[in-house]
Amino acid sequence: MAAALAAIVLAAAAARPAAAQQAQRAILASKLRAQLEAIAQETPGVVGIHVVDLTSGERFGVNDTLVFAQGSAIKVALLTELYAEADAGKLDLAERLPVRDADKAGGSGVLQGFGNGTSLLSLHDLAVLMVVLSDNTATNMLVDRVGMDAVNRRMAALGFPHIRFQRKMIRPEESARGNENLATPAEAAGLMARIARCELPMSAARCAEMRGILEIPKSGSFPDPIPPGIRVAWKPGSIAGVETAWGIVELRGRPYAMAVMVNYSDADAASAAIRRASAAAFDHFRRLAGATAWGTRVPVELMEKLKP
Q1: What is the CATH number of the domain that holds 187?
Q2: Between residues 6 and 237, which one has the greater pLDDT?
Q3: Which pLDDT value is given to residue 306?
Q4: Spatial separation of the C-alpha atoms in residues 97 and 227, rounded to whole Å
Q5: 37 in a structural domain
């Protein structure tokens, strides 16, 4: 009887930190949700946000099932298909394509300034230009090589049917008809979470290579609030009235994935909304990184060392 009572007391003592952690962290989570809702409410236009805690799996969303036009952020879906096909042996990332006048597109990038047929670039190099410089010519060349239907089939198979690649870059007539590349914040953040965990139909090495392209530094609203030295894999997108960002923040001890989308807005307001949402998420997760059940802070390395 005494032994049974001691076991109950010990179990109750062990449960107390877990109960405290659950109740108090729920308060922190409610504050993040309130911040994100306030950002969405205060921003001119419509804001959608989805955040995934890559440690606990907890999700935070505001207007996150609404479908938004994407601009260049949709290029993450094309990058995913490209690397999945490379891993399956359907194509070789070292394959080289000529840059022709017929391929050139306006907007961002450098390939539009290249001579007709004077340069041969590998699929890998085109992917880097597509992500880092958001080169629209490189993107359209990869679209021709991979196919929009293949991208959409891949996204649907991964559980993201609302991520839709529907037109090439810089097609004003198509945009005027309402034909846009689309996604929801929940599905975009879900894809970034899969990239972060490498839960994709490709090897870990190939996944790391793809993620490395997304981590090549780029300035913008999403990484602005994040301190230097923290790896950020992300892709922005913007078209008139719309701004988007899909990202992974490799905060040691508490990594997270996130998507922010704004439409019916203007450039300054949309950028400010993405910056504020990114700052709110980072502040939340930095409070959790290295925190014990009682909210005390210890070195993350020590917590990692003591993990069972």
Answers
A1: 3.40.710.10
A2: 237
A3: 79
A4: 38
A5: no
pLDDT at 9: 33
| Residue 176: both structure tokens together | 């005027």
The full length of the chain comes to 308
Number of domains the chain is built from: 1
Helix, strand, coil in percent for the chain, rounding step 5: 50, 15, 35
Res. 11 pLDDT band, cuts 50 70 90 = very low
Query: Judging by beta carbons within 10 Å of its beta carbon (0-12, 13-18, 19+), is residue 115 exposed, middle or buried?
Result: exposed
228 burial level (CB within 10 Å; 0-12, 13-18, 19+): exposed
Q: What is the pTM of this model?
A: 0.91
Rounded CA separation 249/226 (Å): 9
DSSP for 201-236?
Answer: SS-HHHHHHHHHHHHS---STTTTTSPTTSEEEEEE
pLDDT of residue 17: 59
* 15-63 pLDDT per residue, tens: 455 665 788 989 999 999 999 999 999 999 999 999 999 999 999 999 9
Domain membership flag for residue 25: no
- At a CB cut-off of 8 Å and minimum separation 6, what does 4 contact? none
Distance CA 247, CA 232 (A): 7
Q: Which domain holds residue 54?
A: 43-290
Tokens, residue 178: 């309402």
- 9 or 105, which is more confident: 105
Residue 50, token pair as written in the block: 């989805």
Which residue has 């990869």 as its token pair?
Answer: 142
Alpha-carbon dihedral of residues 233, 225, 285, 134, nearest 10 degrees?
-20
